[in-house]
Amino acid sequence: MLRHPRMNDLPPLLTEALSAIGPETEARMGDLINDFVTLPLSEEDRLSVLAGAVATIATTRYLQHRPIFIAALRCWALEISITLSPAPPRAGFDRRRGPVAEAQDGLLSGLDAILRTMLDDGSAKHHRLVTELAVMAQLLGRYDAHSIHLVLTAASLACEDPRWRTGYTVPVLLSDGAQLLTRDACLDMLAPRGTA
Q: At 87, which helix (H) or strand (E)?
């Protein structure tokens, strides 16, 4: 189950950054996060939506600095996760992909709307970057470190996969992360890969 971080649960850098964007934008971010949290998705589907959204954001807006964006997101999400200490998500068997694509589109569209408003208001680029990082870090930070690692690894691999296209979903299979690796295991077969 996802938990909601309170302002005093957030890393100091994130709290400081959020205070710079203003209460209206912060409220819109909160609405977007709450809308996403209430979607009727399995935990595996929810993580897949987050992986697809991270990969899309990293590829479309931070292509040259993709690893830095993902590393910053990993740091903030892990810091939030440690503070909240949620129970690990349950593995789901529901393979619906329609709602996953819709949820990912909704998350990305909501974030784009917030960023367009900030652009129209003349917000500095670093405020827009912080907003994007803050939304994704707060969503990812509701999970345990293992789930965060699975999502960000899947997103990174999708970004590097020439077959993956921006906006496609990125499957995150919780059962894959629990497999034992042998010396001769093929990592390409075990790692979540992004396909449509």
A: none
Q: How far is CA 147 from CA 1, 19, 85, 140, in A?
A: 13, 28, 12, 8
Which residue from 140, 141, 118 is spatially nearest to 21, judged by alpha carbons? Answer: 118
One digit per residue, the tens of pLDDT, for the chain of length 196 reads: 344 555 455 666 667 767 777 788 888 888 998 899 899 999 899 999 999 999 999 998 888 888 998 998 888 888 777 665 544 443 443 444 588 888 888 888 888 888 788 777 777 666 777 788 888 888 888 888 888 999 999 999 998 998 888 888 888 887 765 443 333 445 455 444 444 4
CA distance readout (Å), 46 to 19, 91, 105, 131, 156: 28, 11, 12, 20, 17
Whether the CB-CB separation of 158 and 51 falls below 8 Å is answered with yes
d(CA 142, CA 9) in angstroms, rounded, equals: 11
pTM (two decimals): 0.66
Of all helices (H) and strands (E), which one includes residue 86? none
Count other Cβ atoms within 10 Å, centred on residue 111.
21
Closest-CA residue to 167 (of 139, 196, 192): 196
How many whole angstroms separate alpha carbon 3 and alpha carbon 6?
10
